[in-house]
Amino acid sequence: MTGEDTVTQAAQLITKGDFMGAMAIFEGYSNENPSDPAGFHGWAEAALFEIQANGNLDDKGNDRINEGQIAAYFRKASSMDPKNPDYLASYANALLEFDRIPMAVREFRKLKSLGDELDDVDVSFHLYEAAKALIELVDMKTNYDRSDPNARQFIPIALEFSMLGLGFSSVDEAMEYLLTEE
After folding, report:
1. Which of 87, 155, 160, 172 has the most CB atoms within 10 Å of its CB?
2. Which of 102, 81, 80, 77 is nearest to 91 (CA)?
């Protein structure tokens, strides 16, 4: 079976909700193809889907899947293929999912730089989604108190990401449209 066939087989399991089965396929693929980031990325994606769908605590209150391993595999795939915006966005989103906001912000800024560097890569969707997730996370952490220091620290970043996600090249460009006289 080719690598592409293996990845396709695992992706089919993901669409059926068999995330653990997909993780096993990706793990085997990564063991056989340690220089291909697709296996590491796929394992991390499937693991994250498993946690989102079924939670991560077992009957004893322990993590079923190590979140650090998920982040490490996303980071590994991203470092193996640094020009792949999907790998970088997945890593940054996982960091948000695991409440590592400063690290996630740093990775999303790298994603913006990658989008600026590569003419054929549009990262605006990823930045817009990041803004939305960041606001939701901040609201949840601060009980919707946007005067909280955490909110005041990260809401401007979320607003920046949302403007960039709408296709503006910078916050300054977006502000020109907001400050025009009628």
Report:
1. 87
2. 77
- Residues 21, 43: Cα–Cα separation, whole Å: 10
Q: Is 176 exposed, middle or buried (0-12, 13-18, 19+ CB in 10 A)?
A: exposed
Return d(Cα 98, Cα 75) in angstroms, integer: 14
The Cα 148–Cα 141 span in angstroms is 10
Distance from C-alpha of 174 to C-alpha of 135, rounded to nearest angstrom: 19
Q: State which residues form the domain around 148.
A: 83-182
- Does this model's pTM top 0.85? My answer is yes
Q: Which pair of tokens denotes residue 180?
A: 């025009």
Residue 135 shares a structural domain with residue 149: yes
Select from 20, 24, 25 the least CA-distant residue to 9: 25
* Per-residue pLDDT tens digits for 17-43: 999 999 999 999 999 999 999 999 999
The token pair that represents 37 in the structure block? 């980031």
Q: Are 107 and 154 members of one domain?
A: yes
